[in-house]
Design a protein that fits this description.
Elements lengths: L1 H24 L33 H4 L5 E6 L4 H17 L6 E6 L7 H15 L4 E3 L1
Parallel strand pairs: 1-2, 2-3
């Protein structure tokens, strides 16, 4: 009987040690975006939907103290973007008293003609009934 206990204890120690080593050497996930509290540069997007629709208002300049989320989209499909924008729309409505702002910024990496991209974003905003989220 003592032999089983000793063996179990040894296995437990080896297991804990292996876990500790793996936790120490595990790589961190990818970092994305700016650090919390870091200053953001100004930019002039074209707001296709949302409170600043039809303007080139800089969100960083106009809402410097508001709690906000900016999601920058590169090549994702509209289905994923729609799910994200819908969640942000709900969050913005829920936190309206805090003046929460939400922006989905489309990076025009493929140099799609401006009007085509704006039409696509207008249709997406209309289909999702976005009123609080700015598609820019």
């Amino acid at each position: 009987m003592p032999r089983i206990t000793l063996r179990s204890g040894a296995l437990a120690i080896v297991g804990v040690a292996a876990f500790a080593v793996s936790a120490i050497s595990a790589p961190e996930g990818p970092t994305s975006g700016v650090n919390i509290g870091a200053k953001l540069p100004a930019y002039s997007p074209t707001h296709v939907t949302g409170p600043d629709k039809g303007t080139a208002t800089c969100p960083v300049c106009k809402y410097p103290r508001n709690p906000a989320v900016q999601v920058w989209v590169n090549t994702d499909n509209d289905k994923n973007v729609a799910a994200l924008a819908t969640a942000l729309e709900q969050a913005a409505a829920q936190h309206a008293d805090a003046k929460f702002k939400a922006f989905v910024v489309f990076v025009n990496r493929d140099k799609v003609e401006g009007e085509k991209l704006q039409t696509r974003l207008q249709e997406l905003g209309r289909r999702l009934k976005l009123t609080n989220v700015s598609l820019v």
